[in-house]
Amino acid sequence: MSGILAGRRVLVTGVLMESSIAFHTARLAQEQGAEVVLTGYGRLGLVERIAKRLPEKAPVLELDVQNPDQLASLADRIRQEVGGDGRLDGVVHSIAFAPQDALGGHFLTAGWESVATAVEVSAYSLKSLAMACLPLMEENGGSIVGLDFDAKVAWPAYDWMGVAKAALESTSRYLARDLGPHDIRCNLVAAGPIKTMAAKSIPGFETFRDVWTQRAPLGWDLSDPEPTARAVVALLSPWFPKTTGEIVHVDGGVHAIGA
Q1: Disulfide-capable partner of 251 in 46, 107, 186, 192 (CB 3.0 to 4.6 Å)?
Q2: Pick the CATH number of 9-256 from 3.40.50.1820, 3.40.50.720, 3.30.1460.10, 3.40.1190.10
Q3: DSSP secondary structure code for residue 12 in this structure
């Protein structure tokens, strides 16, 4: 099969619904020639059903990024599933979560336990996932791509998830520094708002609609995750061999436009 990911194997986390950026990333990766392995958390049966809608069959492995045992066994489980050395050429981090009391206008009242959960799941997990996959990447190099939401400014309702995304951006830069000697790149794609399952869990998410409607020079479709998925696939490919520690904005240009 031809394509910019021909002959490559990619791990994609965060596929939950067909509307998710992760699903469209997995689909495009397969269409571009990659072998794809998925991970899911909690609702594995749902992930397996959604996986059947991909162009090619993709195995689904359980992964809770707060579970040290599952992280420690991930490389071996991938090897068992795909055979051989289990080599990975790419990893997609599409994992984020904050408890409800850390969102929706509760910035000043959220307790540390909820904040810690948001930071661990949404930011620290990028490092956790990178280290879990390192044994499968360190010999041949590869690309890690995470999904971001621009953290340069404070957004309505986003609260501690915004702080967690800022931590994600910093984590990616440090991973770029420390994984570079293994020829492993680490980049983020900062997407505009997409109507995904995760987005629907953010109180006040609809307030973003007007911002993007009014300020995106290229326009923005909240129901179309494909532009973001295309950027992720491009960064997974060998077409960006010397790009690392970068944040690529796929938001219709909103990040560049003032009030």
Answers
A1: 192
A2: 3.40.50.720
A3: E
